[in-house]
Amino acid sequence: MKVLQLWKGASPGTFIPRKGAVVKMGATIYGNVSVGKQSVVGGEVGNSVIGDFSAKGHHGYLGCSVIGDWCNLGAGTSNSNLKNNLKTVTIYDYKLEDFRDTGLLKCGVFIGDYTRVGINSSFNTGTVIGIASMLADTSFYAKFVPSFAWVFNGDTQIYNFDKFMAYLEALYISKNEELPERLIRELNQLNKKYN
User: Fold this and answer.
1) How do residues 151-186 score in pLDDT, each as one tens digit?
2) Which residues, 6 or more positions from 154, have their beta carbon under 8 angstroms from its beta carbon?
3) Contact, 74 vs 28, CB < 8 A?
4) At CA 131, angle to CA 125 and CA 135, rounded to 5?
5) Side-chain half-sphere of 137: how many Cα atoms within 13 Å?
6) Please, are residues 23 and 45 in contact by the beta-carbon 8 Å criterion?
């Protein structure tokens, strides 16, 4: 496997690619970007970390953000990383179970592992999305979306855990990877905790 595929027309800044990472044609990497193992990057990306086996392969802006492992961002997905009023950014804090001020002027979106985001998704400054969620809406999402959420047509429901696990198994197979038993146990525990 190649260490990196850098397509013709890509404009990479300072970034750290892991084994098998792909930077697509026309991508603009502004710098301070880490691209995980076998992840795909397109569009504009700056000051962000993209986990292993994740895809942000199309147009759209991703800045000052953290994307977990095994995530997919649909075409046109973008986030804000600076408030129009130039005030500091608040984010949801799991430990506090409430929002807190980061003290930062720039802060993008945090997306948990195994979360999928539909086309043309838009995220406000400082949005936090939990793990194992499926977002398919055409308006801005709430600043906090809990883990195991299914968001569609302005409605948030609990993501059916059996459907999520079937998706996860298919996802691992599609990448020629084996779904670890330890992970299955941990996800079951997290699902029970949050649902």
Assistant:
1) 988 889 999 999 999 999 999 999 899 999 999 999
2) 137, 139
3) no
4) 65
5) 19
6) no
